[in-house]
Design goal:
hydrolase, AB_hydrolase_fold, signal, alpha/beta, EC 3.1.1.-, 5-stranded antiparallel beta sheet, 294 residues, 9 strands, 4-stranded parallel beta sheet, disulfide bond
Amino acid sequence: MKNAEPFSSAIDHFLLNQGLFNRTLLGIDLISSSVTASVMCNATSGMGSTTTYTYCNATVAYTHTGKGGEVVLKYADATDGLGYGAVGGATDAGYDAFSNSYDEVVLYSNRSINWDATHMFGYQALGEMTLVTKALTKSFYGTSSDAKIYTYYEGCSDGGREGVNQVLHWGEQYDGVISRAPAFRFAQQQVLHIFSSMVEDTLGYYPPPYELDKMVNAIIAAYTDDIALGGKLLHYHGESDSSIPAASSERYWQSVRSVMYGDMSQEKSLAALEDWYPARATAAQTRCSPGRTP
């Protein structure tokens, strides 16, 4: 373990420059004593990566003003930022999400809802992490207070849902969001889990692999990918997703169009939404898999 002083000093520097001597940033109390930092040599960055890097692996915790508990932020380790030469962060959302899933903490022992965990899971934790990370990045790298920190988010499945919610609640903090196969409309999602098996069982026919491959190749041959990342939110969903219905993304996109541009003609409303929120179905792609994507 190397000296954590440079990272801790970044926290002090930012708070001092902002005149926040009580160590509070927008209802967030950063805990300097929680800072750890270590130099990782020829190590992977987690998330299934096999590429090795030499990097600074750091953590810091904070509390919410007037509340107990701690929220832990990780930088570099367990993130994909290193591959892009970027600062990458992850949050435990205050309920140790690195080890626990939300359904394990959503209820208290008296069966009442843990609303703090619910809000953190839904949208709050990632938004707070983004605010803190942008501030610390400026201080750590010695950039000017008015320097632009370009910020992007990418996630799939529940991460895709989180991406959509970041646009809804913290949209001004991001320069771009890629949301893949967002896991919302849970009722339809659960039905889809058994749909294909029921069809095969009802028909009494189970297509051999070569037939499935032929269908996939035909779809790819007919597919035209015509999108570039120029919008605020890029949303795409694999049509071969066997868990999350691709139609749920289409339904959500159309709902946004009707709410925001309901007074326009169909042609104009489609163009207006497409300008900042392009959405596409990607042929023959399963959930969160590599494949032909924008």
